[in-house]
Amino acid sequence: MTNQRPQTPREAWTALQAGNRRFVNESREHPNQDADRRTAIAEQQKPFAALFGCSDSRLSAEIIFDVGLGDLFVVRNAGQVLAETIIGSLEYSVEVLGTPLILVLGHDSCGAIQATINSTEGTLVSQGEFIHNLVSRIQPTVEQANRDGKFDIDDITELHIQDTISELLGRSTLLANAVKAGKLGVVGANYRLTLGEIHPIVTIGDIN
Ligand SMILES: [Zn+2]
Questions:
Q1: Ligand 1 centroid to 79 CA: how many Å?
Q2: Which among 68, 88, 105, 194 could disulfide-bond with 53, CB atoms 3.0 to 4.6 Å apart, if both were Cys?
Q3: With contact defined as beta carbons under 8 Å apart, do 87 and 166 qualify?
Q4: In this predicted model, what pLDDT tens digit does every residue of 56-79 receive, in sequence order?
């Protein structure tokens, strides 16, 4: 990655893709991870992208995109399930920090999606009432997928990412307006755990 901060949705997405390619090819540059960078951004952060992804320990944001301090505004929870606090965090990144891109990142073999599939099939009953809260938010996507004849976890994960982006832009007028104004792009993508690759599923705004 160059030292120039990506300014537009397209530049931000290009930078993330380039960083992920370096990670996949084992040619990471580890940018922006030294003391100089730490000092330079101590006063003010200006991340070039916001990432809303699953908490999975294998989805480490800065590693898989080969970026450093101050580059990504990261929001994560199990199964990347929207909540008002999540939407608020993403609005903050766009309105206050001027972030030109939101990446919604799911992945294969997601435990939260699998738990929801199992719960829908009746083979899993969670003891945690707050775990139930996560599962119940993914459940409508699983049920709709099943009605459409889709039972595969990868298919359901893709639908969940699409539904998450629809809900995000449906609920946040601020984010929807930023997309309309050309200031914000939104990408939904799937991360492949074995390959380390990012596969885009949805792109919204001036991205490509
Ligand atoms: Zn997951």
A1: 5
A2: 105
A3: no
A4: 999 999 999 999 999 999 999 999
Closest to 115 measured CA to CA, from 130, 126, 127: 126
Q: CA-CA distance, 197 to 70, in Å (whole number)?
A: 23
Report the pLDDT averaged over residues 105-129: 91
Report how far residue 159's alpha carbon sits from residue 166's, in angstroms, rounded to the nearest whole number: 10
| Strand bridging mode 72-77 / 185-191 | unpaired
**CA 43 – ligand 1 centroid, Å:** 33
Centre of ligand 1 to C-alpha 32, Å, is 27
Domains of the chain, by residue range, sit at 9-108+154-204
CB neighbourhood size of 34 (10 A): 12
As a CATH number, domain 9-108+154-204 is 3.40.1050.10
CB 48 within 8 A of CB 103: no
pLDDT digits (tens, 9 = 90+) for 167-201: 999 999 999 999 999 999 999 999 999 999 999 99
